[in-house]
UniProtKB/TrEMBL annotation:
Coiled coil: none annotated. It comes from the Eukaryota. Residues 10-73 form the ABM domain. This is ABM domain-containing protein. It comes from Podospora pseudocomata. InterPro entries: ABM_dom, Dimeric_a/b-barrel.
Length: 107
């Protein structure tokens, strides 16, 4: 079975980018330390100063790893924090990715 890939797209409010980056560091550290089935979990900046975007590239070993991530206390904390702080201009969008061409390094 091949790994599972997702792309999360976040649209933070321009004045909340630094806060979202703090949250990203906290979540990333948790995932690295507690979710061995996550093969890749990287956050990227893109967009413009007026319309910032943050993209998260996620790769999981299998569906069990996805389920562990989705049910983690840290992901619940991220969602709860967003509900309290309203850091985003738009809802977070998570897209499943299906590779069909190209290559990647083999681990």
């Amino acid at each position: 079975m091949s790994s599972l890939h997702f792309l999360a797209i976040l649209s933070p409010k321009p004045d909340r980018v630094a806060r979202v980056e703090e949250i990203a560091e906290s979540v990333s550290n948790y995932v690295k330390e507690n979710e061995p089935g996550v093969l890749q979990y990287q956050w990227f900046r893109t967009g413009t100063e007026e319309k910032p975007k943050i993209v998260v590239w996620e790769q999981y070993a299998d569906q069990a790893a996805v389920d562990i991530h989705k049910s983690s206390s840290k992901l619940a904390w991220l969602i709860e924090t967003e509900e309290k702080e309203s850091n985003m201009q738009e809802p977070i969008e998570v897209l499943p990715l299906e590779p069909f061409a190209g290559w990647a390094p083999q681990s």
